[in-house]
Design brief:
BTB domain-containing protein, 263 residues, 9 helices, SKP1/BTB/POZ_sf
Length: 263
């Protein structure tokens, strides 16, 4: 049985510069770029053509037949082309698509482009950018942006985010571990909310509160807690749910009919 002919690489229509002096190949696409531009904009490219003995590698990247191979697992074509656009200053007017900005952030982090990281992070913070909290949490961990981690995680576990929203992430490299962490944390919070809604903190009875009165105080405290605090803790609308930062004021303002003034 004859084997199919090999797929020959093709030159990029946009990023194959005739005056370039280094050729890269991603999948079956060739890119001819400028070493000086890459070395100036990417820290990790500055020494990639130097051998361990200090001499330059004569072959790699010399021409189409000796292209520097970029594995798909490291950089898919879309990521690589987004990074090239950043390196060569091909930025259009904002807002920018989230996939483009994430590609710049991804490869800028891996290839040592600090200005690429800063620019991508800056534009991903724009209010006009549709950058979901799940993607933001994922990017904060994978691409080392700690200022996003806590705010994004808090929003994910406290707002009305549904598993059905995962369909919006098709095509993004969001790890299952991150999704699993968010889902499990939301489940823990939900169970704790249900517990708090029906099990108030114990009453600290005053010494002047008699034995018979203590039982009445406890019953009054239980009823007031469930009807006031508990209902807000598990309210079906997240906008009206009692949030942790509101809890202290809500308890201090709680009126408990039938409870002794001493307790």
């Amino acid at each position: 049985m004859d084997l199919p002919p090999p797929i020959l690489p093709v030159r990029s229509l946009e990023f194959y510069y005739n005056d370039g002096n280094v050729v890269f190949q991603v999948s079956n696409v060739l890119y001819r770029l400028h070493k000086s531009v890459l070395a100036a904009r990417l820290d990790l490219f500055g020494g990639m053509f130097i051998l361990s003995n200090g001499q330059r590698q004569p072959e790699e990247g010399r021409d189409d037949n000796h292209a520097v191979q970029i594995e798909d697992g490291v950089a898919v074509r879309e990521d690589f082309e987004a990074l090239i656009k950043h390196i060569y200053g091909q930025w259009t007017a904002p807002p920018y698509p989230v996939p483009f900005l994430l590609s710049v952030l991804k490869l800028s982090t891996r290839r040592g482009s600090e200005d690429g990281r800063e620019r991508a992070i800056h534009h991903l913070r724009d209010h006009g950018t549709n950058f979901s909290n799940l993607l933001k949490f994922h990017a904060s961990i994978k691409y080392k942006v700690p200022l996003w981690t806590r705010p994004a995680f808090d929003m994910l576990v406290s707002t009305d985010w549904k598993l059905g929203d995962l369909s919006l992430l098709a095509g993004y490299d969001v790890s299952l571990e991150i999704i699993d962490l968010v889902i499990k944390t939301r489940d823990l919070i939900s169970r704790e909310r249900r517990r708090l809604a029906t099990l108030p903190p114990p009453v600290s009875h005053d010494i002047n509160c008699g034995r018979n009165q203590r039982e009445k105080c406890s019953e009054a405290w239980m009823a007031a807690w469930i009807l006031s605090i508990g209902r807000k803790v598990i309210h079906v609308d997240p906008l009206f749910q009692l949030q942790p930062y509101q809890a202290a004021d809500a308890v201090r303002g709680l009126v408990v009919p039938g409870m002794s003034d001493h307790c």
